[in-house]
Write a structure and sequence with these properties.
By secondary structure, the protein is of the alpha/beta class. It has eleven helices and 14 strands. The strands form four sheets. The chain has a seven-stranded parallel sheet, sandwiched between helices. Strands 12-9-14 form a three-stranded mixed sheet. It has a two-stranded parallel ribbon with strand order 7-10. Nicotinamide-adenine-dinucleotide (NAD) binds next to helix 1, strand 2, helix 5, strand 5 and strand 7.
Length: 340
């Protein structure tokens, strides 16, 4: 049974990935500092999988703690590195917090991974590296555009750090997964997204509005050059995304990678507008959502959806869930945490 370290494993995407890793028989160790999650997520994971992962509460910004951790767990055969700060607006307000947390932790982690018997590394990257791409759907070879925010920049620099390190360390095998827009929750409604404060993302804002926590949702701009005038994104069910990590890790374990640093888009390949997401919610929840059209928001791009050919054919992964499935799971989760 191979032992996998999942950093940020109590967060939204990390927790769903831990479930999928355990489901196929990996032993999982989670590191999380609980800065954006709760220890109770462990109970959700355990209840779904009947197996409690090992958990170490540790801040990865503390280099010596990272070193001590790897001294104790030198039999790790793969690291999935989710831990990062992810609020775009906050990163503009406090860039150093983002550069410190997202880059230092990556560097400390890579240094330790280099010393392992099996140096396999999966990195949480993002479609933000493409900015407003010139062509839709976006392929992995689309140019990386100047980042719109310090957060986005940490993903670009993060990929460069990994790429440079791979060039001179042939034993290091890394994959950067460029996520599009992860949404939804586990179908059991035992784990899901737990935004702290006002949600930054569309779907938790929608479900909180549906649950009566927020009065109304603002749709930022309905005059974009799209069919209904609202922005288009590629919304991917978090369980599909979690499975992509398992497949990527198996690719490295089985030495199937074509080079020692690969990138893959992880999306559905389908673009959905903000209004389509709202209507999907209305459909699964049988209620109409209170929303209003507001002015455009600075920095929002018109459209971004993935070309998934490389992920489908090379990685051997494909998203299975529909937007309705994802909205249904998100709504079940919101109802569960609000006791509705
Ligand atoms: N959710 C998205 O829309 C999205 C899109 C693209 C990429 N990503 C990336 O995916 C990864 C996971 O995102 P998520 O949505 O699950 O976020 P999340 O905030 O739910 O999870 C991140 C976890 O990392 C932990 N963490 C943060 N800093 C830490 C540190 N210094 N030491 C230990 N633990 C730390 C947090 O407590 C949290 O549990 C992040 O790298 C994020 O940038 C997310």
């Amino acid at each position: 049974m191979k032992k996998i370290l999942v950093t940020g494993g109590l967060g939204f995407i990390g927790s769903h990935t831990v479930v999928e890793l355990q489901a196929v028989g990996f032993e999982v160790v989670i590191i999380d500092d609980l800065s954006n999650s709760s220890e109770s997520v462990l109970d959700g994971i355990t209840s779904i999988t009947n197996k409690k992962p090992i958990f170490e509460k540790l801040d990865l910004k503390e280099k010596s703690s990272v070193e001590n951790f790897f001294r104790k767990h030198n039999d790790i055969s793969g690291v999935i590195h989710f831990a990062a700060s992810k609020a775009v607006g906050e990163s503009v307000e406090n860039p150093l917090l983002y550069y410190e947390n997202n880059l230092n932790t990556l560097i400390y982690m890579l240094k330790e991974v280099l010393g392992l018997q099996e140096s396999n590394f999966i990195f949480s990257s993002s479609c933000t590296v493409y900015g407003q791409a010139d062509k839709m759907p976006i392929t992995e070879s689309a140019p990386v555009k100047p980042a719109e925010s310090p957060y986005g920049n940490t993903k670009q620099i993060g990929e460069e750090i990994i790429s440079d390190t791979c060039k001179v360390n042939p034993n290091l095998n890394a994959i950067a997964l460029r996520y599009f827009n992860p949404i939804g929750a586990h179908p059991s409604a035992k784990i899901g997204e737990l935004p702290i404060g006002v949600p930054q993302n569309l779907v938790p804002y929608i479900t909180q509005t549906g649950a009566g926590l927020r009065e109304s949702l603002s749709v930022f701009g309905d005059d974009y050059p799209t069919a209904d005038g609202t922005c288009i994104r590629d919304y991917i069910h978090v369980v599909d995304l979690a499975k992509a990590h398992v497949i990527a890790l198996q690719r490295l374990h089985n030495h199937k990678n074509d080079s020692n640093f690969e990138t893959f888009n992880v999306g559905t390949g389908v673009g959905s507008s903000v209004l389509e997401v709202i209507h999907a919610f209305e459909n699964v929840s049988n209620q109409s959502l209170n929303y209003k059209i507001a002015p455009r928001r600075e920095g929002d791009i018109t459209s971004a959806f993935a070309d998934t050919k490389k992920a489908n054919t090379v990685l051997g992964w494909k998203a299975k869930s529909s937007l309705n499935d994802a909205m249904d799971s998100a709504w079940k989760w919101e109802q569960k945490i609000r006791n509705l």
